[in-house]
Design brief:
510 residues, mainly alpha, 18 helices, 76% helix, 0% strand
Length: 510
């Protein structure tokens, strides 16, 4: 196997362990809480209260899980040492009193968490109802505009005509302002989930609520019954085992609650960016925690796919060229990176010139890396086999990287699948573009750029060392070259200097 193939494989394997977690590219640096991926901004952001309530609930749930973990650990220790209860009734009584007090505090903490969860559900419900009612308001606005246009039709008043032109433009804008088709179902699911969480914490009759109160009462009864354990040690042992099981269930349910709250946070889209130009505006954005720029990560993935496919196409077009191959590669890179940068500028919000420049650099290097992979594969497996493998690899990147980034936008992705995606060049440029557009992880951004540059360099070095025979040279050799020259032209790869010397020889013979 050729040297460039081995080095490229080593780079891909090393990239699988590089710090390029998708979520890190859209979480602003120094942010305290995670959130969902940025979405295409299309209206007023009505989820600010929901995000704050979710953050408060997450913090309180963290304290709850710490308390239940300690409760579980304490009850397990109590069970392990139950054999010494016969000689330590007094110590056990003191421990049971502490356990009962801990359950009372845990119950009080659950009540505080229930208040936060209820506020979260109310805020989410109100925001979701406003968003879902957007289509109704939109229809009413369109009807009002249509009525006004119909009532003023035929008027020769210049002011009325000017008003009609403005209304027609407004109608086109309102007509295109549609919510995605799947938002209603997702927002309804978010509303129902947050309400279910609040009910579990605050409403009697639900498992978690009743479990907390049952465990609290059980701990109090245990403390009172330990005084009678002299003659009932065996029964006390059974009660301790039940308490351990209950504490384990409480700990499990609190952990599940924390995970569900985190899921609610991930399901909420990131806050709309604040793009004030004045220094005060930027300061207010920093104090409110809102990002100053945003780019949907799926948009970064799609423009990276454009760069990868553009690199494959440019490499295939330039592979057989003798004198203009670098012009073809340069033009292909410019077109792919330029088109991707324009799309990022259009789809992003509040992007700075530096972010746009880094995006262009990442896409250009991603295109060259894809071209380098194509050259490496053709060099190793021949014209037909290498071309087929390059196309298959490009399609595989589009599928794997696209799926991983789509899943990561609203939830967690398995580490093995994320590592597989991280080993693909499309993931590198996607990480760099997303981090630049969302003010995300600098490490992920420059790691992606560096890996793309390294793979592009490996491919370009291989392209300088080897070059396939072109059809034009072969045809000229078959018509007028000497047998020795024709034999030399049959090789599948040859040095660029040899090509130029052979061309001169052909012209001399002719």
């Amino acid at each position: 196997m050729k040297w460039n193939v081995l080095i490229a494989m080593a780079v891909l394997v090393a990239a699988a362990f590089a710090p390029m977690n998708p979520a890190a590219t859209w979480v602003p640096r120094n942010a305290e809480n995670t959130s969902g991926a940025p979405a295409v901004y299309s209206g007023a952001d009505n989820l600010g209260d929901a995000r704050r309530a979710a953050a408060d609930a997450s913090a309180q749930a963290g304290f709850l899980t710490q308390g239940t973990a300690k409760l579980k650990e304490g009850t397990e220790q109590l069970r392990d040492g139950s054999g010494e209860l016969i000689d330590g009734i007094a110590s056990a009584k003191a421990g049971a009193d502490q356990l009962s007090q801990g359950m009372v505090e845990l119950q009080a903490g659950t009540g505080q968490l229930a208040d936060g969860a209820t506020r979260l559900a109310d805020n989410v419900g109100g925001a979701v109802d406003q968003v879902i009612g957007f289509d109704v308001v939109r229809g009413q606005v369109l009807a009002a505009i249509d009525d006004t246009l119909n009532s003023t039709r035929g008027s020769n008043d210049p002011q009325v005509k000017d008003l009609r032109v403005q209304l027609e433009g407004l109608r086109r804008q309102v007509d295109t302002a549609e919510l995605p088709a799947d938002w209603t179902a997702q927002l309804t699911e978010l509303k129902d989930g947050s309400r279910e969480l609040a009910n579990q914490l605050a409403t009697p009759g639900y498992a978690y609520h009743d479990g907390i109160y049952t465990a609290t009462n059980g701990a109090a009864e245990l403390a009172g019954g330990l005084g009678e354990m002299n003659n009932r040690v065996g029964e006390a042992q059974d009660g301790i085992n039940q308490l351990v099981d209950g504490a384990a269930k409480i700990d499990e349910m609190s952990t599940t609650t924390k995970e569900r709250i985190n899921g609610v946070q991930r399901a909420l889209p990131a806050a709309a960016p604040v793009t004030g130009t004045a220094g005060a505006g930027a300061g207010e954005a920093s104090q409110s925690g809102a990002p100053t720029s945003s780019l949907p990560p799926l948009a970064a993935m799609l423009v990276s796919a454009l760069a990868v496919l553009g690199g494959v196409a440019a490499a295939l077009a330039a592979y057989g060229a003798v004198r203009s191959r670098w012009s073809i590669i340069g033009l292909g890179t410019l077109l792919a990176a330029g088109a991707g940068t324009i799309l990022v500028t259009i789809l992003g919000t509040g992007l700075t010139p530096v972010a746009i420049g880094i995006t262009g650099l990442a896409l250009a290097l991603g295109t060259l890396a894809s071209a380098g992979v194509t050259w490496i594969l053709r060099d190793a497996f021949g014209e037909l086999g290498g071309t087929a493998l390059a196309g298959i690899f490009a399609l595989a990147q589009t599928g794997v990287v696209g799926w991983v980034w789509s899943r990561a936008a609203t939830g967690d992705v398995d580490g093995v699948v994320r590592a597989l995606s991280s080993a693909m060049p499309m993931h590198w440029s996607t990480s760099a573009v997303s981090a630049a557009g969302n003010n995300g992880s600098v490490v992920a951004m420059w790691t992606g750029i560096g890996l793309s540059a390294l793979l592009a360099l490996i491919g370009l070095v291989g392209a300088l060392r080897n070059r396939p025979a072109t059809s034009s040279v072969s045809s000229r050799a078959s018509s007028g070259s000497t047998p020795a020259t024709a034999t030399a032209r049959d090789d599948s790869f040859y040095d660029e200097t040899a090509v130029l010397e052979a061309d001169d020889e052909i012209e001399h013979v002719r």
